[in-house]
Amino acid sequence: MRKLRHQKRDNSASNRGQMAVVAILTAARDVLVEEGYPRLTMRNVATRAGITVGNLSYYYANKRDLMHDLVEAVLQGYFEDFEKITDNLEISPEERFEEMVRFIIGDLATKETTGFFPALWALANHDAFAAQEMAHIYQMERDSLAKVIGQLRPDLGKKERDLLALFISASMEGHTMFVGYRRDKASAIAEVTNIAVYSFLTLVKSIEARSIRGLKPVGKSAGKRLAS
Questions:
Q1: What is the pTM assigned to this prediction?
Q2: What CA–CA distance (Å, rounded) separates 3 from 177?
Q3: 26 and 103 share a domain?
Q4: By the 8 A CB rule, do 91 and 99 touch?
Q5: CA distance 140 to 137
Q6: For the chain, what is the domain count?
Q7: What three-state secondary structure class fits 143?
Q8: What is the pLDDT of residues 143-194, one digit of tens each?
Q9: 99: domain range?
């Protein structure tokens, strides 16, 4: 699993405090991934972190604060990973786009992602805080994709780049239930990734802005194929 980044808290300025926060967040992440959100209690997190509930409460007074820092720690890790790809000027825009797609789909196969994000999705259905945090994570992913799309297609406007990023992000994230960790089609992830790279790269390089806006009419032959 990805190593979580330390989250700055008023009571964790010392090296010992920083290590304690990382241990707590790692324990919370592991409980969420392996046991699900209903088991994410302060007691279970403390037990897994090897500390008392009282010690845990010194850093986190409640589960909401704990979840906030956990999501932020996960988010920061992804931001750094995405930034390394989008800012790598030693490779071409096509290669940066391919690397981004391969990273995102490859990440779906990890135990962390397969367990963490579906739990966050479910929680977001009835918890405003979780919904806000989930939106934050996926906005970051779309922004990174839009940045690479802009490097490939500087002729497209921001709206078109953002819409393409939305479509591609949604298409990839939808694969979690199928090629995620120990999912039914997990063994096909390499081939699925190859198809995704080819199809998304072809889409980004060839689509016209007027097609995205619905201003380019469908040809007669294409219309017949769609109708059949």
A1: 0.81
A2: 24
A3: no
A4: yes
A5: 5
A6: 2
A7: helix
A8: 999 999 999 999 999 999 999 999 999 999 999 889 998 899 999 999 999 9
A9: 88-215
